[in-house]
C-alpha cells in the first residue's frame, strides 16, 4: 500500500514508519513525506532515508484552509497515495479533505483517547493524577481526535514525571505502535 506521511515538525513517528517499511514483509511503503512547514526537521530525516518529500506551506493560502488542502490533495493523488498517515501534522482538517480520504487516513495521538483530545496531553494526564498514559492510533473523522480507535499502547506515569519525561516515554511507545497499526491496517485493505 502506498502511504504518505504528513508532518509539521520533528518527524520521529514518520522516521519510525519509514524504518519499519524496510522490513521485507511490511504491507506498506512510504512514497511521500509532506510537510506544511518549510524546513521541518522531519524533511531531512525523510530525505536521508531516500523518501520523496514535498512542502506545501499553508501560510500563502491565508485563511482559506480548503485551498491549501486542495494543493495537498493534488500532490497526494499525483504520487498515487492510497493511505495517509498523519504524524504530528498540526493542522485541523476540513470536512472536505476528511471526506475525500474517509477510511484511508490515520492519526497518532499522544493520549489514551477518548481521554485528552487536543494539546498538552501529558501535562493534563499528570495534573489529573493518572497512573498511566499512552498513545492511540485512530481513523480520522471530522471531529478532532475522535475517529474509531485502531490500537493503543500504555505506559506508566512515574513519580516526579514532568510532561517532557512522560512525552519521551510515550514517544517510545508511539514508535512501536504506529508502524504496527499501519501495517495491520494496510493488510486489511489489501484483503478487502
Ligand atoms: C507525537 O507525539 C504525536 O502523537 C502527535 O504529535 C507528535 C509528533 O511527534 N500527534 P513527531 O514529529 O513524530 O516526533
UniProtKB/TrEMBL annotation:
The keyword Transcription regulation does not apply. Residues 2-181 form the Formyl transferase N-terminal domain. It comes from the Bacteria. N(1)-(5-phospho-beta-D-ribosyl)glycinamide binds at residues 11-13. The active site is at 109 (proton donor). Catalyzes the transfer of a formyl group from 10-formyltetrahydrofolate to 5-phospho-ribosyl-glycinamide (GAR), producing 5-phospho-ribosyl-N-formylglycinamide (FGAR) and tetrahydrofolate. This is Phosphoribosylglycinamide formyltransferase.
Amino acid at each position: 500500500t502506498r502511504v504518505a506521511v504528513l508532518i509539521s515538525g520533528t518527524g520521529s513517528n514518520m522516521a519510525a514508519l519509514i524504518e519499519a517499511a524496510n522490513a521485507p514483509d511490511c504491507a506498506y511503503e512510504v512514497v511521500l513525506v509532506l510537510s506544511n512547514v518549510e524546513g521541518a526537521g522531519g524533511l531531512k530525516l525523510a530525505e536521508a532515508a531516500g523518501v520523496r518529500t514535498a512542502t506545501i506551506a499553508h501560510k500563502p493560502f491565508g485563511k482559506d484552509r480548503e485551498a491549501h488542502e486542495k494543493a495537498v490533495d493534488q500532490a497526494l493523488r499525483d504520487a498515487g497515495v492510497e493511505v495517509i498517515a498523519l504524524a504530528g501534522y498540526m493542522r485541523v482538517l476540513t470536512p472536505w479533505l476528511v471526506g475525500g480520504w474517509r477510511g484511508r487516513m490515520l492519526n497518532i495521538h499522544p493520549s489514551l483517547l477518548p481521554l485528552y483530545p487536543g494539546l498538552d496531553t501529558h501535562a493534563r494526564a499528570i495534573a489529573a493524577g493518572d497512573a498511566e498514559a499512552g498513545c492511540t492510533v485512530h481513523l480520522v473523522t471530522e471531529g478532532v481526535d475522535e475517529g474509531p480507535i485502531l490500537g493503543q499502547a500504555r505506559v506508566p506515569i512515574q513519580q516526579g514525571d514532568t510532561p517532557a519525561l512522560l512525552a519521551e516515554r510515550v514517544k517510545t511507545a508511539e514508535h512501536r505502535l504506529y508502524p504496527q497499526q499501519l501495517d495491520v491496517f494496510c493488510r486489511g485493505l489489501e484483503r478487502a
